[in-house]
């Protein structure tokens, strides 16, 4: 007899999300298994980008990925927003604040939190970067300190406001300091300060920095950071934190209102209460199958788990690739248990390490071979983030990631400011209307009079159509419309605008052979050509109307560019008209949303499509979100 099985995953972080997505896909046809994903937040947080929120590069929403949306198409997954505080192993039940959840297999991926090693004052006066609330709090505090510093007349007090100290030079510290440095010019401008008044200092207890990097990469990062004004102090231990200064190990004091503690991580403190054996940093000890050693039904993955892979007792690195590797072991072994197969062992898959120093520069060491810095390193980092969205099957968040990191951003990125969308779109509205009018005026001559494209007179003078119609075999009769017209008047002259007294030059005298071969497939004979010329005219009218009214502008602009390019290749257009391709591309910049029907149409479309695909988003207090699925 088949009995129903419950798989419960606690923690929708990098590890938990990846595991749930894989299990949901692999078990989508198995109606005897239900998966429950529990997280204390209704969204997944992209922790690796917390510094971007803390330094106001992106908004918090840019790194929060809605769980209802992520699982709206997965009928076998219940998404629950609840905080787990205990696991009843005897009754196989997860206990959370708002309910209890029975399990046959449990995957625990509740992550890590900052570790201040008991340093006095960090909790009261310091700032950390462990979750989205920390990042928002830090962002607001930094802005506040610069504002207060800009008003302070006492030089010492002012410097305390404008000194920002990052303790620790690991991933988090380096990325935070780099990001803060990229915010510095904006902050300075906002509060009328000299950017040099704002001082960012990294303090490291050890004699060297950035130990997660190869020493040559670390040296490059140090050189870049120092060159851009970040002070890096080694052999500098912070032993106490106060409201407006910190105590250093050498007995001195350093004035600051902002100490950002990134010097260590430990397992989520919730792990202490779950009753499992813990190792270094409070991490829960697991065996080579990512299971609790005495309970093969409980898997622990990611930052909260410790698998002593290399026998040093340190455990696997607390990085995304470690969380994914453990998640892979967990989902594979749960499937193996369901199918009575042999389990697989954990194998850390570490492809490399990448660190950003602000949005436009970074260092990376990939596949134990390639050292990258600058543009290529940061591009790799972005691509790796994008790959994660593919791994969790989310095209929606992949799209938004690209938009938020490259387009909806004011700061220079790896693409400098070339991609940012903050230009004034309104200026392209007249161009859009003019382009639309151009199509409509062009069509006016195609719908009436002797040159109408709606009669049975062939207007597409393609060689194979002309030959078939006239029976003429000479190539001369098979010239294009453009070259025909040009031949009738003065000799054609190359120019990009119409030069009075000269005939414009066609882009192609005759359709290139490859274009002929393609076109012949779609327009093989006169009957199809007559239908095609009518269809083209109707399409041009629609394009013209869309552009004039600002309706579906992106599509209309794109199609206009394609149409003009096709006309050029068909020998039916002149160099003086080529500007239309570029104008058509330019109006794809959202000019319809700026002034046109797209102001209403695009939001309506987004809402309707979103509803059709993801269902109606419901508040968390409704409880289980599964009931709303389509
Ligand atoms: C600023 C910063 C930068 C980083 N940069 C990098 C980097 O560049 N590269 C890299 O590889 N790694 C980086 N890391 C580390 C990386 O983020 C972690 O290794 C990774 O997030 C671990 O994934 P995880 O699934 O174990 O836990 P997490 O991603 O932390 O997810 C844990 C989840 O559990 C949930 N949770 C916790 N407690 C409970 C509870 N009691 N009940 C219900 N839910 C709970 C949380 O809400 C969270 O969603 C960085 C970390 C930080 C903070």
TrEMBL record:
Residues 6-327 form the FAD/NAD(P)-binding domain. It catalyses: a quinone + NADH + H(+) = a quinol + NAD(+). One of its GO terms (molecular function) is NADH dehydrogenase (quinone) (non-electrogenic) activity. Pfam families: Pyr_redox_2. It comes from the Bacteria. The chain crosses the membrane at residues 353-380, 386-403, 424-441, 541-567, 574-592. Keywords: FAD, Flavoprotein, Membrane, NAD, Oxidoreductase, Transmembrane, Transmembrane helix. InterPro entries: FAD/NAD-bd_sf, FAD/NAD-binding_dom, NDH-2. Its EC number is 1.6.5.9. Belongs to the NADH dehydrogenase family. This is NADH:ubiquinone reductase (non-electrogenic). It comes from Lactobacillus hominis DSM 23910 = CRBIP 24.179.
